[in-house]
Each structure stands twice: as C-alpha cells, then as structure tokens.
User: What shape does this take?
Amino acid sequence: MYERPYFKQVKSRIEEPRRFIQVILGPRQVGKTTMINQLLSQSSISYTYESADAIAATNSVWLMQAWETARVKMKASAASEYLLVIDEIQKIDNWSEIVKQQWDKDTRENVNIKVILLGSSRLLIQKGLTESLAGRFETFYLGHWSFAEMQAAFGWTIEQYIYFGGYPGSATLINDEERWKNYIKDSLIETSISKDILMLTRVDKPALLKRLFELGCLYSGQILSYTKIIGQLQDAGNTTTLANYLKLLTDCGLLGGLEKYAGNVIRQRSSSPKFQVYNNALLTSQDDETYSTAIVNPKLWGRLVESSIGAHLLNHAVSERYNLNYWREGNNEVDFILEKGEKIIGLEVKSGASADNTGMGKFNERFHPDKMLLVGTGGIPYEDFLKINPKELFFS
Assistant: This one.
C-alpha cells in the first residue's frame, strides 16, 4: 500500500520519547486514518484506537473513558509505553480541556502514554489547541494528494490529475464518470459540509453556504466580488455573511478565497476574493463537461490547469506556512503571489499559445519580488511544477 511522504515523519515522532501530543489535521478522504493504520501495523508499541465519529458531541465522558482504558491496558500488559489514537476529535464538546487534563495527569504520574489526535476541521481543532493545549502539541497538516502522489500510487497521467483531482478513494471510478461525479458530490462534498460545518458550527443559512460553495467551485481561478456573488444568489444576506461562510469552507479544505496582494494588510482584506478549490475534483464533479470534451477545449482546459496549479499552491500554503494571494490593477494581473517572511514570488500560469503578460512587468516594477516565474507555455512545464513542493521556490 502506498505511503504518503508524511508517514516517516509521523512514525519517527512516535518513536521518540514522549514530549508532545501529535495532532494530524486535514480534509476528509485524504488518508489520515489510512496513514495511522499503516503506522499502527508497523509499530511495536501497543495501542488503543478510538473514533468519535459516531459519538454524541455532548458525551465528553467517552473521551475520559477511552483514556482510562488505555491506562488499564498499559498496566495490565506491563508495557513501558503505550499509544492512544483518537480520530475525529473535534466532534466532542470541550475536547481540548479534557485532553489537557488527562495529558497533564499522565505527565505528573510518569505514565508513558503517547497521543495522536486526528481531525478534519482545521478551525475547530486549532481553536482548541490554542485555547487549552499551548506548548503541549505539534501539528501535521495532510492536504489533498499531489500529482506526484497520484502518479506513484495509481499511475495517473498529468491530464487525468488536472481533470479528476487528487482524491485517492475515487481513483478506481474514473472510467465511469457519472459514478465518479456522484461519489465526489455525495460521499465527499455533502459529507464534509454536513459533518464538518453544519453539525459543528452555527450556520443560519445552510442553503446559502452550499450555493456559495457550488458557485465558488465553478468560478475557481477567477476573481469575483461579493457584490457580484450576491447578485447570483437568492437570500444572500450581506457580504460579511458570505465572507464568514467562505472561511468555514476554507477551514475544511474545500474552497479558498485568495485575497489581493497589496503590500498593505488593510487593503488586502477588503479585496474581492479569487476563488480557488483545494482539489480540482470539487470543480469538475459539478460541471456538465466530461473529461473527453474538457481536454479538447483550450479555454476550459486552460482554466483547469490554472485551478490545478492554484490547488497545489493552496494546499502547501497551509502545511508550509506561506501566504498565497493574487494581484490585479486595472487590466494587469498576476495569477499567484507567494510570500514567506521577506521573500515575494510572482507566478503566472499560461496554457495557451501565447506567453505574453504585461502584468508580470508591472508587478515587478512596483513590488520588486525576489522571483517572477512562468508556469506553462514558455516557462516551467506544469507537469514538472505540480511535482515540486512550492516551498523549494523560496530557497532555490
């Protein structure tokens, strides 16, 4: 079975002396649980694995019971160390306070129980970590699968990856497109929105949130003002509501809204968002076009290529901790701006015959970035770009 690149790093941390809780975050269906099962099968440490997926949110006693069970099993086996894994931890109310209480108790009493927590809602997990568990944890963010991973695991071509995205669970369905689209929409999109947003967060207009998601996916790679969005939605409320709903979709690894780069945080936050899916499957599964028609439609294929590059950059922006924006002034535009510390990189995607772009020159004159890169026609082949970790651009 294919092992994601993160596997060895997680395994090495679990084999270290007990120091920190290991927290693994990421969207649904990117292989968090599979990776942990691989880890458990290879580890010599005895373990208890529990999932809160079907547990009532108010049942915080369940979490304490799971911890006590691990202590009893460890004592009964006279083991020198033990591993407790809890999946979908964000489902339990007040989980972070209970974890802090139990972790600190083990620390005081020299009970060598190592802990891995998994969760699919980045917002709820990080809120709990910062409120209660400061100094006690390390995080891993598992994003959507990259082209290199899908190629290594399933032998996909670059064209298949750009159209079908990076959900490993759907890889065997791509020869039956209708079935594949239904799987993405019903098993992934609907489940993520229902379980990771609507069940855990107050949303006054769930139909509006779902419509915003659909619209944002179909406009992935395009800049759209909230005012224009309201014009396309019924019962849209105000721009603040839409911005909050987009934040929820971002935190679940579904749909992002890139802000305009201006070298000025105030102006940046007031800009129109550039929609960007985290996985191209979220776009193509909701479109009427098929793989065979998309691949011969230059305009549509160009959009899918740019969206795929954007998804690649957006997933790594979370794990590698760099800012990702776009830039536009008048008719001049640069597709993506990467910023890490003092370093700025401008990146333009071109999939057509012409690689001309006056926006790159204008941006270079105004902001003097460290690098200006072209991906596609006349620049780095997008197949090659999708195989690299974008953080390497800051150091090469």
Notes: The CA atoms of residues 45 and 82 lie 6 Å apart.
